[in-house]
Structures are given as C-alpha cells and as structure tokens.
TrEMBL record:
Name listed for the protein in its UniProt record: Retinol-binding protein pinta-like isoform X2
Domain of life (superkingdom): Eukaryota
Organism: Aphis craccivora
SUPFAM superfamilies, sorted: CRAL/TRIO domain (SSF52087), CRAL/TRIO N-terminal domain (SSF46938)
Pfam families associated with the record: CRAL_TRIO
Taxonomic path: Eukaryota, Metazoa, Ecdysozoa, Arthropoda, Hexapoda
C-alpha cells in the first residue's frame, strides 16, 4: 500500500491509542502541560535563526509532542537536542540520504543479513522490547552497519510522525552468529559520529541491553562498542551465559516465537518494519530534504551547518 505524497501525519482524531496515551501518563504529561510546552517550543523554534518554523509532512505541534516524549518530557532537553536533529542531515549524510530499502544497497544488505524485531506489545512500565541478531548462513562481507543505521533513523522518524508508544527500550542482542568478519565491517569514524550525534538527535532511552548466546569473541565485541556508549548505558549491559537469567528481566511471553515466546517470529517482525519503511518513503524523503538547517534571512536551506552551535 503506497502512501500518498501529500500525506501529513498528525494527532489521531479522538482519544489517543492506549499505548500512546499510557506513555504520556507515565511521563506525567497532561493535555494542559502538552499545550503549554509545545506552545513554548513553537515560539522557541521561531526565535532560532537557523531552524525551520514548520516541518514538511507532519503537523508541527504533534511532532513536537512526540519529540517531548522522546526527551523524557523535558523542554530544556528538547531545546538542547532538536538543533542536532536538523543538523544530522549534514553531519551524517551517509546515513540520512536515500533511506530507501528498495534502491539503497546498504539498506538492502542490512535487511538481508540481520534480523531486527520490534515487539508490538508494550511491557510493564512502558518498556518496548527489540531483539537483534545476525542472520545465520549469510556472508559477513555482505553485512552493512550503515544500512542498520539508516533503518534505525527511519524507525525513530516514523515514531515521531505517528506517535511514540513507549518510554524506554529493552534491547536483546543475540550474538550466537556473530563473527570477526562482521566487526571488520564497522566504519569506526562513522560509528563514533552516529553514537555521538544520532543518539542526541533521537534520544531514545535504553533501559537495558541484554546479550544472549555470548560468543568466544565477546571481549572483542565489547572492546569495540563499550567506548562508544555512555557510562550509564554501559552499566545497563548484562551478559547472559544462560537464557534463563534473561527471563528474570524479560518475561518469556514477550519474546519472539523462535525463543519460545508468544510474539511473532523474529523474521516476521523484521519484515513488518522493512515494509513500513517502504510504505512511508515519501515522508522519509521529506525528512532528508526539508527537516534541516535553514537560513531564515534568505529562507534557503543552509549549506553552512554549524555543528558546534
């Protein structure tokens, strides 16, 4: 089902869907506080000489409400992070351009060599479960970390347009199929920029990272990724030698079928999101071309993006 080019995302008519409403309650947001804070942010945007006053493809107040959710309902944090959202298109052009799973080789390779499943059911406390692994029987040389990064920014953009339904992410990383060849594929400079800036542009809260089926090369994996993670996230990483200890943190019913849980299989969850990213292409193209730094004096998109501002 293709999306119409002129489709504009906005607040759903009538009451908000349960998970989206529950997320706001968990963060202490009320209709009144949302009106007040979003109003302040709209004015703040107008006062910025190089940030756009409107967003293509999405109602500004709805997007800001979701961005407020992503920033733990903290207005000052939004003001700190939002400029990076607009600057990201020039800071990470390799990731933020042509995020199309049908034509972009990096994305095609990423989808075909990995499985990333976002479980639709929200766990207690507004937590969302994601499970990631390298597909068995695929060549490590085909693996594309850049394609994964493109996919992750698409997920974040879609949540900001459609409504965020969780407060925190619980990530289960199944490393049973990881090989040194996968690690060799990571462009370290880009990886550093991605962790530094993309995580600021999309400040998704990670509650825990659970590593299951740790391989013999686990220490190599950790040496590579730990320096990129903030100290508080490093403290939230748990390595499980046995599957049973994972279940002390993640009830089995939420896990994909492949692991004996009640959620759809990992491949089904993976393909659902691949299709979503295909269906919403017109919006991602608007994000890439229009959601960026502008020069309000001349009203043209600025090529001079000052990252340090």
């Amino acid at each position: 089902m293709g999306m119409m080019l002129d489709h504009v995302y906005g607040r759903p008519k009538g009451p908000l869907p349960d998970d989206i409403a529950a997320t706001r309650r968990l963060l202490g947001m009320t209709d009144e506080s949302i009106r007040r804070d979003v109003g302040e942010l709209i004015q703040w945007l107008r006062d910025q000489p190089n940030l756009p006053n409107t967003l293509d493809g999405v109602e500004l107040d709805w997007w800001l409400e979701n961005y407020l959710v992503m920033n733990k309902n903290d207005v000052e944090r939004v003001k700190d992070n939002m400029p990076v959202y607009f600057q990201l298109k020039t800071i990470l052009p390799e990731v933020m351009t042509n995020r199309d799973p049908k034509t972009e080789k990096e994305m095609i390779n990423a989808y075909n060599t990995t499985l990333l499943g976002l479980v639709p059911t929200i766990m207690d406390g507004g937590r969302k479960l994601a499970v990631y692994m390298h597909r068995p029987d695929t060549a490590a040389s085909d693996y594309s970390p850049v394609g994964i990064a493109m996919h992750l920014t698409c997920l974040a953009d879609l949540y900001l347009a459609q409504g965020i339904d969780h407060t925190r992410l619980v990530l289960v990383v199944d490393l049973r199929t990881v090989r040194l060849g996968h690690l060799a594929r990571y462009p370290l400079g880009l990886l550093r920029r991605f962790f530094l800036y993309a995580w600021k542009a999309y400040p998704e809260r990670v509650a825990q990272i659970h590593i299951i089926n740790p391989p013999a090369i686990l220490s190599v994996v950790m040496t590579m990724f730990k320096p990129l993670l903030k100290a508080k996230i490093r403290k939230r990483m748990i390595v499980h030698r046995h599957f049973e200890t994972l279940l002390e943190h993640v009830p089995l019913k939420y896990m994909p079928k492949d692991y004996g849980g009640e959620s759809p299989s990992l491949i089904e969850l993976h393909e659902t999101w691949r299709q979503k990213v295909i269906d919403h292409q017109p919006y991602f193209k608007k994000c890439s071309t229009k959601h960026r730094v502008v020069d309000k004096k001349t009203n043209v998109e600025s090529s001079e993006n000052n990252v340090s501002s």
